[in-house]
Design a protein that fits this description.
Number of helices: 5
Helix content: over 70%
Order of helices and strands: HHHHH
Shape: elongated
Structural class: mainly alpha
Strand content: under 5%
Largest sheet: none
Radius of gyration: 17 Å
């Protein structure tokens, strides 16, 4: 679900995938557009005062930085899965599942940490709106990835 540098790695990933399992150009483009515009999309949706915007920017930038690290881990996991999905062993499946859970836990921890920080500079309604916009952007990316990532065999 997220952020600046991370899934840009998908661009590098596309040519490296087996021809039967590729992340489509449309998915990569969707991700790039959302990531390039994420900050302005979120900030514009919040209708912030100048003071609120100034207080939020460094916190939001730090949040995006941490989320980009999580996205990088997710990209590595997708790449690992796509290399193995046709004949994945039980051991590999267990390792991948553990990585999925670890990434999800880290993402939740970062979101919880920053929701508290956002709440220090914004009223709760604006924090909720920020969360909603972030969630919508992440859902768009996830919906594209669901189309591209096959089920394990």
């Amino acid at each position: 679900m997220k952020h600046t540098v991370s899934l840009l790695c998908l661009v590098a990933l596309v040519p490296a995938l087996p021809s039967s399992a590729q992340v489509r150009d449309e998915t990569v483009l969707t991700y790039e557009v959302i990531q390039d515009e994420r900050k302005s999309l979120v900030l514009d949706a919040l209708d912030l005062t100048a003071d609120q915007r100034a207080a939020l920017l460094p916190i939001f930038d730090a949040y995006l930085g941490e989320m980009s690290q999580i996205d990088a881990a997710r990209v590595a996991l997708i790449k690992e899965f796509l290399a193995k999905y046709k004949s994945i062993s039980d051991n590999d499946a267990a390792v991948l599942l553990e990585k999925v859970v670890t990434i999800a836990q880290k993402e939740l921890e970062v979101r919880q940490k920053y929701l508290a920080k956002f709440g220090e500079v914004l009223p709760p309604r604006k924090v909720l709106r920020l969360w909603q916009v972030e969630n919508k952007l992440d859902t768009i990316i996830d919906a594209q990835l669901v189309k591209d990532i096959p089920l394990a065999r």
